[in-house]
């Protein structure tokens, strides 16, 4: 479902990828690992259609990765750690907005908040949450979308032990539902538990 062919990406002063080819089938999890600054987030941004390749292609279910294409946005849910929120919308209202925009079940909002252990925060504003609470909320915004491909950048960041277990559980559940997951992570535990394959960048 995800096809990356001969991808080249560069940073300001260096080539990060010169000829990356990989394919990910439905119901599989790919871990992206590597040192700080090696290019994991840059690769994820290309997969999410937020950054054009210098050359090569990224295709998801026959649709070229491009965030301006509504067909592509319907296929892919992304968490890259730079999510903006509306100051005047609560946690639950943000999630209801997403269900409306993506044709998901509005009734799923209460379920996902409960699953994330933040149902008691439903009426709070995102900017009032702690780091870990906000990370759980941000991930809820990904899981609630009926996307075929989930792209996560260090989803374990800021989470406690229970939160990291929840992330792994949600990835396992997504894979069982024949969705695919690309996750950049520094957690060997997450890779061990969830990844069917791993690409290590920067070497
Ligand atoms: N907005 C930006 N402007 C200029 N250079 C950038 C920008 N973002 C990233 N880079 C550079 O691109 C390279 C790859 O960065 P990237 O964020 O993809 O690495 P990473 O593997 O995700 O790192 P980390 O593990 O620290 O999150 C680095 O050299 C970084 O300095």
From TrEMBL:
It is found in: Cell membrane. It is a peripheral membrane protein. Keywords: Antibiotic resistance, ATP-binding, Nucleotide-binding, Transport. Residues 2-203 form the ABC transporter domain. Belongs to the ABC transporter superfamily. The keyword Metal-binding does not apply. One of its GO terms (biological process) is response to antibiotic. GO terms for molecular function: ATP binding; ATP hydrolysis activity; transmembrane transporter activity. InterPro entries: AAA+_ATPase (IPR003593), ABC_transporter-like_ATP-bd (IPR003439), ABC_transporter_ATP-binding (IPR050763), ABC_transpr_CbiO/EcfA_su (IPR015856), P-loop_NTPase (IPR027417). It comes from the Bacteria. Its main location: membrane. This is ABC transporter ATP-binding protein. SMART domains: AAA. SUPFAM superfamilies: P-loop containing nucleoside triphosphate hydrolases (SSF52540). GO terms for cellular component: plasma membrane. Pfam families: ABC_tran.
